Structure prediction request, 237 residues.
Amino acid sequence: MIRTLIVEDVALVRAGLRRLLAEHPDVEVVGEAATVADALAQAAATRPTLAFLDVELPDGTGLALAEALAHPRPAFVFLTAFPDFALPAFGVEAIDYLLKPATAEDVARALDRMRRAQGAHSAKPSKPRHLEIRDGGRTMFVPLDAIERVDAAGHYLCVHALGQVHLLRTPITELVERLGPDFVRVHRSTLIRLDRIAAITDRRNGDGDISLTDGSTVPLSRTFRAELARRLAAAAR
Prediction:
């Protein structure tokens, strides 16, 4: 929901803008103000995510109001009768400015920009593409693409990558989450990359052996067999 504050000293303009915003079901008008002082108070009380700001107000300017609002600030759309106002508006990171009288198309365009901005901010950060491993006073950053498999040795996990073995002390359940969807657990003590599987040899009890592309063989537990089958099927689609 786009929580919107309208700051405009002309009641007729406020009413027109409110009517245009009502056509968008994801917009909620949380307040209206006619002055800078009233806008500051309403913004503090309602915490809008978007503010339509008139440039000229009885007790100041929309630009000054934008700079005075407390963080986190809402996104700004300026309302102005002056076409040359665009540059100063974007100087305070406005997402749009609308010439009065604003039309339905103008408002829809500004809201589309707001929605795109919200989508960008809510996007999940990408996971690191390396595994950080401490070795005494040294920290190594092992690329995930270079990891062939992981198996357990006592209290440690052995990370096999580029012909080397790195020791890591962390639960295997935690590591599989960190490694991401390219890896799958095939035994209580073993993780492998899906695309390193060369062959699977079955045993009578449901367990098996997995041959990897580097020539090594790891055990396949029947406990994890169904998940492996599901992941292989998904990867083949």
In short: The radius of gyration is 29 Å. The longest helix spans residues 104-122. The CA atoms of residues 174 and 180 lie 10 Å apart. The mean pLDDT is 86.
